[in-house]
Please model this.
Amino acid sequence: MDEREIAASGAAYKARVTNLYSFLVDEFGFEPPIDAGGQYRHALAYTHRGQNLALLVASAFHPVDYGFEITLYPADGPWHGDCADLIFHTLKEQQDRDLQFLDQGASALRATLAARLAAHGSYKPLPPSGAA
Model:
């Protein structure tokens, strides 16, 4: 993938995510997204300061090709390891060119946030199983 293709796919990805995931801002009170991408990853990050929550909607495509993932973290860090809560994932090889996996991820995320809010009064990641 050359630089023009990366830029074009990044623009399409970010526009689609911003549109599909607008419910995060409108319904769940997250701040508008910021670009958290890099040379080999398209990503948008959302934060909810009142919940101390950060959400990353990312698609890594080169050189490791991890694919697409939606992950929740504590906003004050760390953004890795046991603190991460993977909500949805699609391997690069399973992604479709029309980006339908983004729709599936949005549905999974909306359902997860709504269920957690109803059950716990919070969107925060659940503690690892076995944790007190």
